[in-house]
Amino acid sequence: MLVATGVVVALHVLRPELDPLSHRLSDYANGDHGWLMAIVFGVTAAAILVLAPIVASSGHTAPRRRAIRIALAVAAMGLAAAGAFRTGPREAGVLSDQLHGLTSSAAAIAVVVGAVASGRRAIAAPAVALLVTSPLLHRTAVAGLDQRLLWALVSAWLLTSAPWRDRISGSSAAAPTMVP
To answer: Residue 26 to residues 19, 84, 140, 153, 156: CA-CA distances in angstroms?
Structure first.
């Protein structure tokens, strides 16, 4: 997740003509540096798959843990597919643009479903609000801001879920290892 964030920051420097407030992250998939955004999609998908069992363990019940695992697997598949399809009908073609939009939307919805299933209301409530407003703001001057806030929020949730679980259970002991 941190590598993907670093690459996105680099893309902001490499593509200063794209205003981060109004341009969605997928817009960086076009142009000379588009391959970097494809890497971001792939690395984020892989990170979500790796984090899924850890994040799912923070669910309070078996059905919640299962829902989190499934939601994160769907999110990872959606992100991987979104990385395979370029965006922008003029730049990539109508079909590629539509497939990119569909797969990236599925990823965003799935990761928010996972956040909701986790029971962390401080993350889930704003994530739902940002997800709901995202299509409404899609072609506005703040479309990029809304999307960046959503992904920053769910990234924070993914990266902090294991410590959150330890605080809830009161456990401060290190996780058991295979080595004596």
So the answer is: 13, 11, 15, 18, 20
* Best CA proximity match to 46, nearest among 8, 18, 7, 80: 80
Cα dihedral 107/76/80/148 (nearest 10): 50
According to DSSP, residue 175 is labeled P
Alpha-carbon distances of 150 from 17, 55, 61, 81, 100, rounded to whole Å: 22, 18, 26, 19, 18
Give the residue extent of every domain in the chain. Answer: 6-160
Contact 8, 27 (CB under 8 A): no
* More confident: 161 or 110: 110
Band of the pLDDT at 178, cuts 50, 70, 90?
very low
Read off the pLDDT band of 166 (50, 70, 90): low
pLDDT tens digits along 94-103: 999 999 999 9
Q: How wide is the angle at C-alpha 16 spanned by C-alphas 41 and 28, nearest 5°? A: 20
pTM for this prediction? 0.86
Burial class (CB in 10 A: 0-12, 13-18, 19+), 91: middle
Q: What is the pLDDT of residue 138?
A: 83
Of 119, 115, 128, whose CA–CA distance to 156 is shortest?
115
